[in-house]
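Journal club prep, notes for RB
We'll compare a predicted complex against what the paper describes. Inputs for the fe (ii) ion case:
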Amino acid sequence: MTPPFRYRKLGYAALTVTDLARSVAFYRDLIGLDLVEQNAQAAFLRCSRDHHNLALYSGQQSGLKRVGFELESQAEADKAFAHFEALGLKPQRVPKDEAQALRQGPSFRVREPHCALEFEYYGSTTVMARPYVPTVTKIARLGHVVIGSSDFAGAYRSLTQDFGFAVSDFVEDRFSFLRCFPNPFHHSLAIGASSSNHLHHINFMVTDIDDVGRAWHRLNKAGVKIAFGIGRHPPSGSVFLYFYDPDGMTVEYSFGMEEFPEVGAREPRMLEPVPESLDTWGAVPHADFGRRGAILPA
Ligand SMILES: [Fe+2]
């Protein structure tokens, strides 16, 4: 199947948090993001040359507000808008002043109807003059966002057909790792079957396995609750650590990820639905692992 439009990458995740100052301190000082801008309602943090890779909004209910994906060009963004319009999904242009505040070119939003997650698409974003300088952790990039959905089959079909994601690996009827084709990373988005639509976790990839080990001690010392790990994910082999942000939302650091070529990529693998498909080191997830954080309406 020809993908309907071409992605560049997962640009940012937008979270709503109940105490903005507390969450800014957490993501800046303990996670290692660079705070670019902050006002009374929102804060923008980054781990790359982009203006933001994490947007935090102040609100009553914590959760995932939207995910932003950068497409390869403005032409791809125009193509995507027309594509969603033709599907009847009613894409909405982001008002110009809001797109400018996000330091993005023309942007639009569209909600996936089964998992209820809002996607934002744009063809260009500001390259900041000052490079991202790692502090406590050498973050390589915002890696992925994982959600649970009460309509896994519907969301899976829509994300792979209408939203243009490619399947990298899956557990039949239960879980799917999705890459934003032709971006090479094994997954920038993943979706699992659940009793409700909710955020599972957001991930930051680190450049060095030592970053995961150091994070274990740094987070424990700071009293941050660990959700799962340290462990190693099969079949990707990535080393992971999951922990909770101040609202109890799950955040992950991981080291290592398979990359796919645009042409001639291997077929997706069907994984055995057992706990060992999550971790080979025997870590046991905490009860709230991947459970806190709603998928929020606009
Ligand atoms: Fe993950």
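Talking point for the session: Residues 144, 146, 201, 203, 252 surround fe (ii) ion (CB under 6 Å).
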